[in-house]
């Protein structure tokens, strides 16, 4: 039972986010940016309480703490992908997403102030199934 609990409690994730119209949003200390209408993929990790972290992202009632909180106040999560992985895997997954054709970094250091990644949020005009 212990192994199963650790798998559920730690991992990495992608939030697939839809922004219905262009929006100017202040992202904490990073500044104010215009986010174009479209889709965003945010990569994060939780090495303790993964489901609690995801539920926090889904909640509308929270104190803004992370960069993603500001975007989610104006946009909607349309899908959540969970993976088994460590914090270093978070950056590897993020780099793969950044290499997808059409991926654009709108805000440098978004969600990546504690690593060397350009950003942990990529914009896509359209979503591909």
Question: Quick recap of the structure?
Answer:
This protein has 129 residues and is an alpha+beta fold. Helices cover 27% and strands 31% of the residues.
The portion of residues forming beta strands comes to 25-35%
| Shape descriptor | globular
Number of DSSP strand runs:
6
**Assembly status:** single chain
Number of helices: 4
Radius of gyration: 14 Å
Order of helices and strands: HEEEEHHEHE
Distance between the termini: 35 Å
Q: In which range does the helix fraction lie?
A: 25-40%
Mean pLDDT over all positions? 89
Could you name the key traits of this structure?
4 helices; disordered N terminus; two-stranded antiparallel sheet; 6 strands; 129 residues; alpha+beta; globular
Task: Write up this protein.
The chain has 129 residues and is an alpha+beta fold. It has one domain (2-124). It is 27% helix and 31% strand. It is built from four helices and six strands, in the order αββββααβαβ. The chain has helices at residues 2-9, 50-58, 67-72, 87-98; strands at 11-19, 23-27, 31-35, 38-46, 76-83, 121-124. The strands form two sheets. A four-stranded antiparallel beta sheet has the order 5-1-4-6. Strands 2-3 form a two-stranded antiparallel sheet. The longest helix is centred in the C-terminal third of the chain and has 12 residues, at 87-98. The protein is globular.
């Amino acid at each position: 039972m212990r192994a199963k609990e650790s798998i559920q409690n730690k991992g990495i994730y992608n939030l697939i986010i839809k922004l219905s119209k262009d929006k100017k949003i202040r992202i904490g200390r990073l500044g104010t940016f215009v986010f174009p209408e479209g889709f965003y993929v945010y990569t994060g990790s939780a090495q303790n309480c993964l489901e609690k972290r995801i539920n926090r992202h889904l909640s509308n009632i929270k104190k803004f703490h992370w960069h993603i909180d500001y975007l989610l106040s104006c946009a909607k999560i349309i899908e959540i992908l969970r993976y088994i992985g460590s914090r270093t895997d978070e950056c590897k997954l993020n780099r793969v997403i950044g290499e997808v054709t059409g991926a654009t970094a709108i805000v440098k250091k978004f969600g990546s102030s504690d690593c060397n990644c350009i950003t942990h949020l990529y914009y896509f005009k359209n979503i591909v199934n």
